[in-house]
Design brief:
Blueprint lengths: L1 H4 L24 H14 L3 E4 L5 H11 L2 E4 H12 L3 H15 L32 H31 L4 E6 L5 H9 L16 E6 L5 E6 L9 H6 L1 H9 L2 E7 L5 H14 L11 E5 L6 H11 L5 E3 L8 H14 L2 E8 L3 H10 L1 E7 L3 E8 L1 H22 L3
Parallel strand pairs: 1-2, 3-5, 3-6, 6-7, 7-8
Antiparallel strand pairs: 4-5, 9-11, 10-11
Length: about 400
Amino acid sequence: MGLAAAINLKVVHGEVVRLSRRRPATLLGSGAVEAFRELIAAEEIGLVVVDAPLTPVQQRNLERAWNCKVIDRTGLILEIFGERARTREGQLQVELAALTYQRSRLVRSWTHLERQRGGFGFLGGPGESQLEIDRRLISERITRIRRELEDVKRTRGLHRKARRRVPYPVVALVGYTNAGKSTLFNRLTRAQVMAEDMLFATLDPTMRSVRLPSGRDIILSDTVGFISDLPTDLIAAFRATLEEVQEADLVVHVRDVSHPETAAQKQDVLSVLQDLGIETGPEDGPIEALNKIDLLDAAAREQLIAHSRREPNQVPISAATGEGCAELLAAIDRRLAAARQVAEFRLGHDEGTAIAWLYDHGEVLGRHEDEAFSYLRVRLDPADLARFERLRARLNGANRHQQGPA
């Protein structure tokens, strides 16, 4: 129901059908097919969504039996993705997934290339049921898209290298679709990313800088929402978004604790993270932002807050009202600080550039001076510590060059 509402479909009937076995020709038994044929004709239904994967043969036979458009769960998700993708990269990724899905469907038109709106034509289109896809053209298009996405991947790699030089830690927001990630992103960054009460409101990765309570800057990344039983092709299509999660220094798992299936949604998200090779254990795993506590009743809310006090990686929040967001930033600050190393430096008074760099990139824990040197105790990321050593060597080399031979 949620997927259908996400693309503004009016649901006139929904029903759970129990299968003793899957029929190769129609998935459903002949009795169910006939019963639905009568209902579809009586209600003048133009589209049926089957919440299960359909083979091309099953899809075609059901369309003939019911005389209407039939799509499966993957087709519906792809249609949503096609409407929501805004960046060129996102559009390419969605089109690649859609063409891979369409290639095995013989009776379809390539209408999404003709239309100005998003989507991929699974929900209708001029003459769609009369045209057959030219597989050769689709294969050629898939090859071109993959080539373009390789260029995009290289560009994103260069952007990541540039961020490492800045460098700011990257914190990625992940979570089940419609958990409130974009609302939280907007709250923390004061941005205006699309945040709607619908599934898959965000498809393109978005990044903004945020200042933590310690004064340290981070890059916050908003990502596509996960969903149960997401087809492998779709996960692969959003490789760039998932790469941002893989490259992140810290993951924040945004959960909708007001949802009746919040525990199952958590497991779906953790399963995807584990597939990406991301640590999900209670100590080194993601920080859990327990969102939408404003929608809980008083008793459930108090119970959740009391439980979270015993879990250092759980922070109850309401992205809508802002409650708990300061505590979430503080938790992010603590986790990032815990990964830093404490180092001590003895710097000459003429090394002002190096001293300023330490203040900009690290947390100065202590400083004292004598007549010749400044002594600093600084907490730094391991990567920043290596950068500082290179910077100092470069500065000292430049100073020696300016002074000339003794």
